[in-house]
Each structure stands twice: as structure tokens, then as C-alpha cells.
Amino acid sequence: MEIFIDGNYSNIRFSSAHFIPGDWKCSRIHGHDYSISVKIIGAMDDKTYFLDFTKGKSNLREIADFLDHRVLIPEKRRGIVFERKEGNLTVSLEGKKYSFPEEECRVLPVKDTTAECLSEYILDKFVKSLGLNVEQVEIEVHEGPGQYAKSIWK
User: Fold this and answer.
1) Contact residues for 115 (Cβ-Cβ < 8 A; gap 6+)
2) N or C end of the chain, less CB within 10 A?
3) What is residue 95's DSSP assignment?
4) First and final CA of the chain: distance in angstroms?
């Protein structure tokens, strides 16, 4: 059995700023309006359903709310240096130095804050939140109309 939750239609969205280091336009701080969709495959066994849609949506919204209106910063990026002082977070990377109020940031355990890395991060958080015996989960992180990254857990 397969169920699908469309994050755009179900209003499972978040808006965040980030930067992707390198020699291109995405190295500048910019933002996206993301949505998260999920496909879950599992067996119903003797039941008539295997996941309450409400629980799936709630778990996805919790993750989206955690990321919403924050600056996303990759903790595992090679060469990144953090300094925390008086409520501010200073991030140094590839010759640039950024300073933010720490409460406005989410330092994530990822190599980068690309849609691809965010989909892996969100997939891991979502699978752990389910607590169910599911066979497969696919997370799509849409960073704008017509473009998304997908991660799959089996």
C-alpha cells in the first residue's frame, strides 16, 4: 500500500535563507519557499490503513516549523568555523564571514543546505518520528515550482 501527502497542497511549507559556498550566484545569502511531500509504502496487514494521515502531516509540519524563517547553516561543511559570542553566531567559510543572531539560525548536521542535503536531513527526522513498521519512505523537498530533490529510505 502506498500513501502520499502533497506538502504544497497540504500547506507543509517553510521559508528559509541559506548560502551555498562556491563561485556562483548561490554563494550569496538568498532564500526559498520550500514545501515537503512524502510517499510512504507499507503493509496494512489486518488493518484497513497503516498510517493516520493526520500523524504524517503533523510530523512533517513539526520539521517544517523547526526550519521556518531561519538561516540554515551546514554544520558538516568542510572548512566551516563557528564562533558563538553574546547571542551571536559568526560563521567563517571560504574567505567570507557571516554574523547572525544565534536564535535566528538552525545549524544542521549536513554538508550543505542544498535541496538534496535538506531532503536527506528531513527524511531522517521524519522516519525516526514515525515509529512504524514501514517499508519505504520518499521525501521530496521542493525549493520552488517544478524543482525538487528526493531522498529514499528503505
Assistant:
1) 34, 141, 142, 143, 147, 148, 149
2) C
3) T
4) 14
Q: Any idea which residues carry the catalytic annotation? A: 26, 69, 143
- In single-letter form, the type of residue at position 152 comes to I
Which CATH fold topology does 2-70+111-153 show? Tetrahydropterin Synthase; Chain A (3.30.479)
Instruction: Give the CA dihedral 44, 46, 51, 55, nearest 10 degrees.
Output: -170
Predicted confidence (pLDDT) per residue in 62-102, tens digit = 999 999 999 999 999 999 999 999 999 999 998 999 999 99
Q: Which residue has the cell 489486518?
A: 46
Look up the pTM and report it.
0.95
Cα–Cα dist 132/113, whole Å: 28
Structural domain boundaries in the chain: 2-70+111-153
Identity of the residue numbered 31:
G
